[in-house]
Design brief:
Keywords: Repeat. The chain has 1 helix and 17 strands. With 243 residues, it is mainly beta. The longest helix is centred in the C-terminal third of the chain and has 8 residues.
């Protein structure tokens, strides 16, 4: 039995961590479950395959073969090492390399909002809305953008006043997922946190929107084994000849 890999965060709260992972690349036995453990007491959780579907989650990190699960009952502002192993009958494969995540501060209010405003091949603009119970208390926001796989900062954190509720991250790579998080606080004390994964658009997708389709497709002549056709270039091209 091989090792599960590519363990990524889908969302983090004060007492829970949602993750996704891919099954072992190579295995000689059918996988019928997974076992998870984390550093908070080394608790082990045995999961059947029907307990780890991804249909309730939304993220560009989720692939057709991915599995998903949310660890609950965790402690706020605590770092956890999470490991996963595959199961086949009574056999277990090796534990995966630990994935490290940190829960947020415990905030007994609503979640708030973080959503995409605009995305192209090199930038992502987001807006956020803190919970109504905290709006009058928050005096600043800090927006972060990280690599969701390595958890590295892609750019320096952006500090904005409580009067600003959006930010445009620029100079990004195309077709890449980015974990964007926003922290709200007052006088240096964090009071609210929200995080989501967004993806920049692919260059191929953008080009297809701006290049018109060829027109006037016609059959010039044909035989049993050959066909000759002609078409006109898009009107925006200088060469209007047939090909």
């Amino acid at each position: 039995i091989g090792t599960p890999h590519e363990i990524h965060e889908l969302g983090i709260g004060s007492r829970q961590i949602a993750i996704t992972w891919r099954p072992p690349s190579v295995t000689l036995a059918p996988i019928d479950g997974y076992k998870l453990r984390h550093s908070g007491g080394q608790r082990e959780i045995l999961l059947r395959l029907d307990e780890v579907p991804c249909h309730a989650y939304q993220s560009p990190l989720i692939l057709p073969e991915s599995f998903c699960y949310t660890l609950t009952g965790l402690n706020p502002r605590t770092t956890y090492d999470i490991e996963i192993q595959a199961k086949s009958g009574e056999m277990y494969g090796p534990w995966s390399a630990p994935a490290i995540f940190t829960t947020t501060q415990d905030i007994p209010v609503g979640k708030g909002l973080l959503e995409e405003v605009y995305t192209d091949t090199e930038s992502i603009k987001v807006r956020w809305e803190s919970p109504s119970a905290l709006k009058n208390d928050i005096t600043y926001f800090v927006a972060h953008i990280r690599d969701p796989i390595k958890a590295d900062q892609v750019q320096k954190p952006v500090n904005v006043s409580s009067l600003v509720a959006d930010h445009h991250f620029r100079n990004l790579k195309h077709s890449q997922p980015y974990n964007i998080s926003v922290e709200g606080g007052s006088h240096g004390k964090p009071m609210w946190f929200i995080s989501r994964v967004f993806r920049t658009r692919s260059r191929a997708g953008v080009c297809s929107e701006y290049i018109e389709a060829p027109s006037n497709l016609m059959i010039v002549d044909k035989t049993d084994q050959r066909m000759r056709i002609s078409w006109s270039l898009p009107a925006s091209f200088e060469d209007d000849g047939n090909h």
